[in-house]
Specification:
Largest interface: A-B, 17 and 17 residues
Number of helices of chain A: 8
Oligomer: homodimer
Strand content of chain A: 15-25%
CATH topology of the domain at 144-216 in chain A: SH3 type barrels
Helix content of chain A: 40-55%
Radius of gyration of chain A: 19 Å
Largest sheet of chain A: 6 strands, antiparallel
CATH architecture of the domain at 144-216 in chain A: Roll
Order of helices and strands of chain A: HHHEEHHHEEHEEEHE
Chain lengths: 217, 217
DNA sequence: AATATAATTTAGACAAGGCTAAAAATATAA
DNA sequence: TTATATTTTTAGCCTTGTCTAAATTATATT
């Protein structure tokens, strides 16, 4: 079907569209895919020929329906494999990204649906991100950013805006995990740092950290 | 470490060495890897530079210790993934080869050992072939070819010489599986076909088929 | 509006891994 | 032991996906 490189570009474009809600520029895509802008341009031409994206020179790029479907399949595979790695092989949530990055490209008509069944059709991956179903449908949960909470408000840590290994390791160190119940104790107006409380402890997090935490109220 | 292509060549050379017990020729390797002889020659040069094989022009090729170790890791990964696919995802033994062929190239320091642990350290894959341990050690079981049995002798179907999908499908159709207890009822001198009996039924198999069945007495 | 800066694309190159066709080496046979 | 056939290697080319450097287009600034 598609090459690994193609799948990686599709996935990257999809992720950026979700985040930025606009046409994706060559440069941003280059930094996301760890390549150079010129390489991106080359690939965009190929993807455009295959009707996976809409691409007009200098205008940035957008997934077509076909392209989005293809991207969602890759996302589905990635997240199901992450779930497998964490819940069956006992990896930490900060260790699975690179391996899932490889596993997501395994080609098979049937593998991923069998894997899903084996895992009992989980709806969310270890970072709280929704796992698209067979048809690319995603279960969206309404959450608010921790920054939006007022003093005294409570909620449950549902998912992360940034799931980089570094950030995950930070959360590990601070003993914060998905599903933790969080209460805002105080907000420091000077630097917007937030004093929070969980079942087990209290801590102060920076504005930057809080901005990465999405809360289900 | 090694590229997929390199790993595939190493595995192919290993398999052929096991089977033929001599230097492996360019042509044989080409047919095993589904490439052309000229491509094989190119790759052999690269593998020789990396000290994975001993290669003298026109003389065929042999794995070095390092090369054999590398090949055994690939075999280990292939067989553990096959075991996973059959025993966890409920694939048939005739459906897993192509997928395992991809999974065996996933790169990770820790993945395969965790997978092994998860699977409870199986010693044999779904085709009865031994799974090398972490250090490349293989458990060898003494078996004899079904052709060597005399009328009246009994044994257990332990492994297959040819594990191609076609042959596996044949065995499925004839209701023959690993661990089946087999008794030789009669041998037809005219064409060397063999009349056998299992727990559940009797059947006649050709010389060619019998030659692919290894029996533990 | 003209110009400086930033973003993007083009042109040309490279590495990996494959191919075909031709040349060279080895093996087989008369 | 030549002659023929087979096997292997070499030479040169192709595709994919990447890169650098240069050229082009868009954007920002004065």
């Amino acid at each position: 079907m598609f090459s690994q490189a193609e799948e990686n570009y599709l996935k990257a474009i999809y992720a950026l569209e979700e985040k930025l809600q606009k046409n994706i520029s060559t440069n941003i895509l280059a930094s996301k895919t760890q390549t150079k802008a010129s390489s991106v341009t080359d690939m965009l031409k190929k993807l455009a020929i295959k009707q996976l994206i809409t691409y007009k020179k200098y205008q940035g790029v957008q997934l077509t329906k076909t392209g989005k479907d293809a991207a969602l399949i890759v996302v589905r595979k990635h997240r199901l494999w992450e779930y497998f790695l964490v819940n069956k092989l006992n990896y930490g949530w900060d260790e699975v990204h690179d391996i899932a990055e490889q596993l997501e490209h395994i080609k098979s008509e049937t593998l991923i649906d069998r894997l899903e069944k084996f895992l009992k059709s989980p709806k969310f991956d270890p970072h709280g991100d929704p796992i698209p179903d067979k048809d690319g449908k995603i279960m969206r949960i309404k959450t608010v950013n921790l920054l939006e909470l007022k003093v005294g408000q409570k909620g449950v840590l549902d998912n992360l805006k940034d799931s980089s290994d570094e950030f995950l390791k930070y959360l590990n160190k601070k003993n914060l995990a998905l599903r933790d119940r969080i209460k805002v104790i105080d907000i420091e107006p000077f630097d917007n740092s937030i004093h929070i409380e969980t079942k087990t402890h209290q801590l102060v997090i920076s504005k930057k950290v809080a901005g990465n935490l999405n809360i289900k109220i």
